[in-house]
């Protein structure tokens, strides 16, 4: 399934995305991949909140597929279709959030993703509702996005009771 998602998103990004902006978007590719890899590091060390199921590939390859194919394609599609007018941008954000939640919910029901340790569809909505604006912020003001990301990381670590500053 993960390979199919990557192929479909890659095709969609070439059809409806704007790869001519890849150099401008490259720092945002790195940002999203770094944040996801940081989550994987924390998850592997302590606990995951969600986990992608790897039916054909192993976990390492699944993480690589998402970090180096799926997420860049999402960024290219997202920014390639993001309107410049504020009202239209908000409507576009809402559409992206809804579609992302629906796709993830379908994946959850089909067993391609597991929610763990208190994560649920409401947290998924919150995550997507913060991720897309953070991508925009990172594209426009990278340092502000990185700083705010640490606030969100601290929030998640607190809410989901990670004890990273104490000995087990």
From TrEMBL:
> Which UniProt keywords are listed?
Membrane, Transmembrane, Transmembrane helix
Q: Does the keyword Isomerase apply?
A: no
Residues folding into a coiled coil are none
Q: Where are the transmembrane segments?
A: 60-81, 93-113, 119-137, 144-165
InterPro entries the record matches: CBO0543-like (IPR048147)
According to UniProt, the name of this protein is CBO0543 family protein
Q: Which organism is it from?
A: Robertmurraya mangrovi
Question: Species lineage, top-down?
Answer: Bacteria, Bacillati, Bacillota, Bacilli, Bacillales
């Amino acid at each position: 399934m993960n390979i199919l998602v990557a192929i479909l998103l890659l095709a969609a990004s070439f059809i409806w995305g704007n790869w001519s902006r890849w150099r401008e978007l490259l720092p945002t590719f790195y940002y999203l991949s770094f944040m996801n890899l940081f989550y994987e590091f924390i998850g592997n060390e302590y606990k995951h909140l969600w986990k992608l199921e790897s039916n054909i590939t192993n976990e390492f390859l699944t993480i690589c597929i998402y970090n180096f194919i799926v997420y860049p394609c999402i960024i290219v599609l997202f920014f390639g279709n993001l309107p410049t007018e504020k009202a239209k941008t908000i409507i576009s954000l809402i559409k992206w959030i809804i579609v992302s939640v629906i796709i993830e919910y379908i994946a959850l029901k089909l067993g391609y993703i597991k929610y763990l340790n208190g994560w649920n569809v409401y947290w998924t909505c919150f995550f997507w509702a913060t991720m897309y604006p953070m991508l925009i912020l990172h594209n426009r003001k990278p340092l502000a996005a990185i700083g705010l990301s640490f606030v969100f990381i601290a929030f998640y670590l607190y809410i989901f009771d990670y004890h990273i500053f104490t000995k087990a």
